[in-house]
Amino acid sequence: MKKIAALILVCLMAASLLAGCGAADSAAPGGGSAEQGAESADIGALRTMGDVFGFEDCGVGYGEGSFVYVFEADGTYYRAIADLPEDVSEALWALDFFDEQHDEKVKEIVAPLEISRLENLSETILPQEELDALIGRTGQELLDDDWYIRGYNLDTMEFWMYHGAFAYTVVFDGTLELTDDFNEEEAIGPLTVKSVTFDGIGDATDPE
Question: Does residue 156 have a pLDDT over 80?
């Protein structure tokens, strides 16, 4: 039950936090300017979750024994992961999610936790030449390679998809009609890819 609640919480927090993850020139630790952020960002010196909270957040999640904070620093996306002790986990779950100070209280509780893993997510962004190599492949091939649909526009045949920690726009050849029993995965299965472009950070709070 708690695992399900964790997934719901991640989705709710992502909805509010992803809106704050903007372009590279807006990222600055400690609430300073972008220029100050570029001068002061020292990723190698980050030791605790409190150290990363000054950077622009792009997603927060916790559950299953870990706390995850995705952030942007100097135009690069990172994911900081900390082990979540049982007492800290219980303190987090005891918070009222609808409390206006909820996010601040979460950060206060987990700030002392040591970072167990710090990943440079930007290194996993698919370069355009690899995206271009997907042209002509079928939608089913993408789905089989762990691409996930997060939305679509049938007028333009654009499907917004996640792959790894990032989001991409995939345009398919052909046309589709929205019906009462429309299944987007089945619909794109036989279609071929026309183009793929990078969108930005996606569902990055899952470290698996």
Answer: yes
Convert 65-100 to b/e letters by CB count within 10 Å (16 or more is b): ebbbbbbbbbeebbbbbbebeeebbeebeeeeeeee
Residue 208 — very low, low, confident or very high, per pLDDT cuts 50/70/90? confident
Residue 207's pLDDT is 81
3-state secondary structure at position 191: coil
Alpha helices in 41-191 (DSSP H): 49-52, 86-93, 102-110, 128-132, 139-144, 184-188
The neighbouring-strand residues paired with 145 are none
Q: Which helix (H) or strand (E) holds 7?
A: helix 2-17
Which pLDDT score is estimated for 42?
Answer: 86
Question: Token pair of 144, please?
Answer: 């089989």
Query: Which of these, 79, 118, 110, 76, lies nearest to 92 by C-alpha position?
Result: 110
- Tokens (6 digits) for 152: 């679509």
